[in-house]
Amino acid sequence: MQKTKKYIVNLILTMPTKRKKVTKKGRLESPKKKVTKQGGAERRKGTSRPDIAAAGVKKLLKDSSPSLRISKEAQDETTVLLQQCLEKLAIKLRSLLDITKRDTVTVEMIRKSCMDLSLADKVCDAQLAKEPKGTRYPLSVAGVLRSTKSHMGKARFTAEAKTKLVAVAMEYVEFLGRKAGCIAKKAAMRKTLKQRDIISATRC
Length: 204
Hints:
Elements: H1 2-13, H2 41-46, H3 54-64, E1 69-70, H4 72-100, E2 104-105, H5 107-116, H6 121-124, H7 141-149, E3 156-157, H8 159-187, E4 192-193, H9 195-203
Parallel strand pairs: 1-4, 2-3
Helix pairs in contact: 3-4, 3-8, 4-5, 4-7, 4-8, 4-9, 8-9
């Protein structure tokens, strides 16, 4: 038993150890950073995230039609329609700012622009409660604001106007989801929301 212990101890002592590299000045070299392979973290840093999150759009569609599955094509079509809606809204807001000779968008301006675009009353009057701690809105406030500002040039939004803009965007997606859900369930007797249902919802 003692011989075995001595053998193990000797084996450990004689094992080769990694020598730390020392520079000419006698200092230890700092370990080199590992280079990520193609497709790793460094590559992802350069990519830009979309302003309108696809996951957020899908969640809103699912909330508006809980009994239906959401197809990828329906999700993409809704995202495009939302971006178009925000672009039209931005153009209306820009013209209002020019008429009133102001630089800051208010809640009333957003509501008036929605009415001019003939959006549903529920969309125009949409409001959001404050975000509870630990949760987020399905659509990013910064993303929706960025998407709108890209068609407006230099413009500022009040804190209430920012929340109102996100509320309008979210209600618009849910509005499309509800109408498209009715078409899919009643007219087509399907369990999946498809792209053609979303397109039909914009026409009726």
